[in-house]
Amino acid sequence: MKKLIFLFAFCIVVTNVFAQTDPEQLKKEGNDAFNAKNYPVAYAKFSEYLKQTNNQDSATAYYCGIAADAVKKYPEAVSLFDIAIQKKFNIGNAYARKALALDAQKKTAEYVATLEEGLKVDPKNTTMVKNYSLHYLKAGLAAQKAGKAEEAEDCFKKVIPLDHKQYKTNALYSLGVLCYNDGANILKKAAPLANSDADKYAAEKEKADGRFKEALDYLEEAAKISPENENVKKMLPQVKAVMK
Predict the structure, then answer these.
(1) What is the pLDDT of residue 20?
(2) Which long-range contacts (CB under 8 A, 24 or more apart) does 179-182 make?
(3) What is the CA 73 to chain-centroid distance, rounded?
(4) 118-152 burial, b if ≥16 CB within 10 A, otherwise e?
(5) Angle between helices 149-159 and 126-145 (to 10 degrees)
(6) I need a labelling partner for 70 at 20 to 30 A (CA). Which of 1, 122, 183, 201 fits?
């Protein structure tokens, strides 16, 4: 009886040894599944391959991250794109995809931080430029709607350094409108002082004029970038008129 038990245990050991799949075979099967857009299988094969090879293959980590994202394994996708980033494989797109995986988890602060970090490495990456710009344009409009003018102004200014005609124009236009409205509100509040306190009124008017000048500068810059923009063309004469 003891002999039979020993033989049975030996068979299990031998079976387990031969059951371990060759890493290169796993990689091949993962590539085949990925190319066929069978992302669940691709993720499983790539993950096992990376596990057996100690995450040394940055390209496979990157594509495994795409597969993980496709099957909504977002935390895993972030970790896999981090491997690609650390090893500098397709680094701009790795940052872009990592950011999207964070956004899918509603980790907004990490999402924005990843975009900022990624844009330092690849400032012309179209996905990151788009997502970073849209984030701050939307945040700026929301802050403006909530009456948080300073926060809105800071958001719009984040977009200006980026190399994108449409988003840059939108940010400059939004800043022009914001500065114009601020100047108009300063004048409106100061109006009762015109007859009662001339010096204080003059000081407030100077503040308003400063904001109007800022508005004009932003709008003129927007006009240089996008001379065809109808919103900019309509707003410019309005600002110039109030400065006369």
Answers:
(1) 59
(2) 179/153, 179/211, 179/212, 179/214, 179/215, 179/218, 180/211, 180/212, 180/215, 180/235, 180/238, 180/239, 180/242, 182/149, 182/211
(3) 19
(4) bbeebeebebbbbbbbebbbebbeebbeeeeeeeb
(5) 160
(6) 122
